[in-house]
């Protein structure tokens, strides 16, 4: 369904209904550009930390506009074993609804516009008929301004729409405006003796309108209704003869009209609010930018700190899943060589995957994947959902007995929740929204600063004695240099000790320096309110009124057992009761969830039940896997599941970073990165 400003209000009930009945939602966005400064390779440095990547995207990508939002809802029909889909294509544009509403400035990137134009994108639908929107702060400000104007009207100040007897004396009229005001008074006096009930005054300045209101309020305390009428070209005052009852009725109509206009101005943000309140699983592909833009445009300005961004994201989207990360991880990475959306959609049509049965609901546009309407947000959301279903159902084949259908609420997909793919980072594959991010050692990496005139060839020349190196530019005067051997780092440091034109630091020294700089900045503690979208006291600089979707408690970034509510189960990753097959290929189960120690070389987890786990094979007997309590079939407990363990590697060179114990052979869980990556 194509939704523009013309049919948005009529479509809202349909959108709300589709979200409410869906098992999961898939989203996608199209933007006016990607980066306003560095090219994509610099914007996505292979050695970024999650904090650095977030800061770069916030700085260089948020001034672009998300102007097409795709939403596709998927509802499983158990009777016919198929999904019913409802795709929506929203065209979005921040058109100011009046002179006091925000007049947003945004930028475009020529390559992005050219690419979308080549794909047949209709820009007229965006700029002529795009749905307006306000974020939470803008909405609160406009409602406050509206209330302030009403209070001024009641006191006879400003541009009131009715005459109040509150003023006790005539308004002061400057000499140069007296002749004009006297002419207005004469016209109004004539109105009382005329059969005509309405008088339209000629357009005038804002100051003259104020003088007219104040003068008429004093001169004619009863019997008049005065209102400013605004057209696309001009504003003028309309004076009407009314009795008290009619005056009150007109004032009530005006307030209702103002409220309706304000609700219209909130516009597309109401759809995002509905998605947030639903608490449904939201699926996207390589969706970090989609999430950042959606929050920034329709909810609140992005916070400076990554941890604050994680908290905000979990309040707006409590359950996210990135299909690019899913396809890049065991057990899928050995089967899927190209994880771009178009290629992934083609791959999951083939064995061992199975294409899901889908049917488009009546009244909705039916997509044909053979025609490939790529880069239309609604279509991209649709095929993202198809990819998720195929991969989720493939997990069911590991159960005993196999299951052809895995629901969006199944414990089998829990490990993929709330982890967003980080593009082109060598050893940190995802941003963990509900816990600490991976912290690889990067002992083989050097941080080099040098004159602005240097080029890549100069760096290769400088490190020519160390064999193959990899250069990752940070800016014009700094870069990361990755050596092939860790023991070469100290040699490089020693040889550069007395250099004047350049400086070399270890990666650990670089991170330590950044942390010290960060500690110098005073971060005011944030507190997130729990009374919903409409909290008027929203102040982004100190706190924000983000509401938590119903049925969900506040989520801690690093939950510990002591923070859990009474009777609540510990937070687990859903895969912790499963292990990899042994050398014979037989399926095994872990006995318990006690071995929650995270991979020390990847991250030091503070969670009581860490996402990143290692398990001792000696514990692998005599337990049942975690039941899929929400699955319609309810029989996930009948089977066990197994993966093929990937070789133990570290970094881009795939070097071994962990020796197997002589006493016990350990098995590795799904997200023990970098082992499986």
Automatic annotation (TrEMBL):
Gene Ontology MF term list: metal ion binding; poly(A)-specific ribonuclease activity; RNA binding
Ion transport listed as a keyword: no
Keyword annotations from UniProtKB, A to Z: Cytoplasm, Exonuclease, Hydrolase, Metal-binding, Nuclease, Nucleus, RNA-binding
Residues annotated as signal peptide: none
Biased composition (Acidic residues): 627-636
Reaction equation(s) it catalyzes: Exonucleolytic cleavage of poly(A) to 5'-AMP
Residue ranges with Polar residues bias: 574-586, 637-648
GO cellular component terms, A-Z: cytoplasm; nucleus
Spans annotated as Disordered: 560-677
InterPro entries assigned: CAF1_poly(A)_ribonucleases (IPR051181), Nucleotide-bd_a/b_plait_sf (IPR012677), PARN_R3H (IPR034042), PolyA-riboNase_RNA-binding (IPR014789), R3H_dom (IPR001374), R3H_dom_sf (IPR036867), RBD_domain_sf (IPR035979), RNase_CAF1 (IPR006941)
GO annotation, biological process: nuclear-transcribed mRNA poly(A) tail shortening; priRNA 3'-end processing; siRNA 3'-end processing
Localisation: Cytoplasm; Nucleus
EC annotation from Swiss-Prot or TrEMBL: 3.1.13.4
Occurrences of domain R3H (ranges): 175-243
PANTHER family cross-referenced by the UniProt entry: POLY A -SPECIFIC RIBONUCLEASE/TARGET OF EGR1, MEMBER 1, POLY(A)-SPECIFIC RIBONUCLEASE PARN
Family designation: Belongs to the CAF1 family.
Protein name: Poly(A)-specific ribonuclease PARN
